[in-house]
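agent> Task received from the user: take the single chain below, predict its 3D structure, and emit structure tokens. No templates, no multimer pairing.
agent> Plan: (1) validate residues, (2) run structure prediction, (3) serialize to tokens, (4) report one or two observations.
agent> Step 1 OK, no nonstandard residues flagged.
tool_call: predict_structure(input=
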Amino acid sequence: MKSLKYLFDVARPVFASGGRLAKLHPLFDAIETVAFAPALPTRADAHIRDSLDLKRFMTFVIIALLPPFFYGIYNTGYQAGVATGLDVSILASMYRGAWVVLPMLVVSYAVGLFWEILFASVRNHKISEGFLVTGLLFPMTLPPSIPLWQVPLASVLAW
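)
tool_result: status=success, residues=159
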């Protein structure tokens, strides 16, 4: 952990105000926050003053979304197996469902990350981890038969 912390400390001046990559400071800050807990507690009046900030709270939301996401993968594969008369075992259904859902997830995250970095850099704000939740929810609401080219189009319109 010390070596990872050292790498962040060495890279921080490059991303700080006046550094070569100052426009990408929100991306650097987001990656550092994922790797390490924030040092400062929330200070606004309406919040409990502890180290659980919005970024950490979004992590709990993502963890809570994983069981329904995996069930959605299974159900997609199961329904496809029943419709085509193929094997509907758990592993076969998970594989078949992952083949459909994971490309949508990757495209949704890629589009969301692109727009989040762009807007955070232009506005000089921190990257919000809300795109992680939205990027996970989005493929869960799309029909499995949607053409893959429509996923980034819908993601752009959703952001």
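agent> Step 4: summary for the user.
Helices lie at 2-15, 25-35, 54-84, 90-123, 130-141, 150-158.
agent> Done.
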